[in-house]
Design goal:
10 helices; about 10% strand; 5 strands; alpha/beta
């Protein structure tokens, strides 16, 4: 099972080559005329996988782009807190898709700040909790990490999870579902882009940037 998870995550976490390819396009492209991130950059989505979302960036790059108001700064601080809690529990391998109104120009479009950050966390179970029985015990012992309402109240994140230790066919189906869901606006079905941040990233530097901005309380 561990080898399968490593293979799955290796296809989704950026390689050194893909990181170099990303330098050829914008890390996080500007909002398009609809006020959302474009689902791809360039003239066609077929040009290169590196031109397609999800746009893989570091936590600092995410913060530099979206830490623009006190409300956004508070949500980003909450996201980092959520990530810190996951890491403290041993969930350190995987990535998060960041989306929702937080990744839209919602202040201009709807005259309001984003109310939360939509986060889909794809993760490998900690090495000591790979078996289903051990994982169920871990899950039950850490309700603060998996209770959607509690996560939102604590960290301002609307959180969803994808366990990469499930059978491969189920995992692929779940990836397809979440990607399709979060690359379209709920009300208009507009195709849009999303951002990906690895669980192992430069969170300390991102938090320092938020503190230096003077925006977050």
């Amino acid at each position: 099972m561990g080898g399968r998870v490593a293979t799955f995550l290796a296809t989704h976490l950026p390689s050194a080559r893909s990181r170099r390819e990303r330098l050829l396009v914008a890390m996080i492209p500007p909002f398009n005329i609809s006020g959302v991130l474009p689902p791809f950059v360039g003239s066609t989505p077929a040009a290169s996988p590196s031109n397609m979302c999800p746009y893989t960036v570091t936590m600092l790059e995410l913060v530099r782009r979206f830490c623009t108001t006190p409300e956004r700064a508070k949500l980003l601080r909450g996201l980092i807190g959520f990530r810190e809690a996951l890491a403290a529990a041993g969930i350190v391998t995987g990535y998060q898709w960041i989306d929702g109104s937080f990744c839209e120009e919602v202040e201009r479009l709807e005259s309001r700040p984003p109310g939360d950050i939509d986060v889909v966390t794809t993760f490998a179970r900690p090495a000591s909790h790979k078996s289903d029985a051990a994982w169920q015990a871990f899950f039950s012992a850490n309700p603060n990490l998996f209770d959607i309402a509690l996560i939102k109240a604590t960290w301002g994140c609307h959180a969803f999870f994808l366990d990469a230790d499930y059978p491969l066919g189920y995992t692929i189906k779940q990836v397809t579902y979440w990607f399709g869901l979060f690359t379209h606006q709920r009300n208009t079905f507009l195709w849009k882009g999303l951002v990906q941040v690895n669980l192992a990233s430069d969170d300390a530097a991102a938090l320092a940037f938020i503190d230096a901005s003077g925006l977050a309380p």
